[in-house]
Amino acid sequence: FDLTGVTPGVERGDTVDVVLQGRFTIHGVTREASIPATVLRQPDAIRVRAEAPLSLKDYQVEGLSKLMGMLKMYDRILLHVDVTFVPGDPTLGSAGSQ
To answer: What letter does residue 44 receive in the DSSP assignment?
Structure first.
């Protein structure tokens, strides 16, 4: 997912509802996406959580059936995002190494 923008929404204390705009690239196919998310400001971190339904057929993912149809995977999946950003060690420099 390449993030291209964030639209802020309702703020409740240390939590803000946002919409993440960007592009998903899966299996070589790129599509625009808007994903509702929640941003939680913590004392030493920022946590972003989101869920988004995706259709694998939209990304030309095939072969969801194996063993003559006995094993099947649904083409509709639910993507879960749970990312925590923490400040880095300022003594390490921008590349993360000395």
So the answer is: T
Q: Is the pLDDT of residue 65 over 60?
A: yes
Q: Is the pLDDT of residue 73 over 80?
A: no
The total of other beta-carbon atoms located within 10 Å of residue 79's CB is: 14
Q: Which residues, listed in sequence order, are joined to residue 24 by a DSSP beta bridge?
A: 31
What mean pLDDT comes out for the span 37-49?
95
Q: Which residues of 31-67 are buried (b: 16+ CB within 10 A; e: fewer)?
A: eebebebebeeeeeeeebebebebebeebebeeeeee
Tell me the pTM.
0.72
Q: How far is CA 94 from the centre of its chain?
A: 24
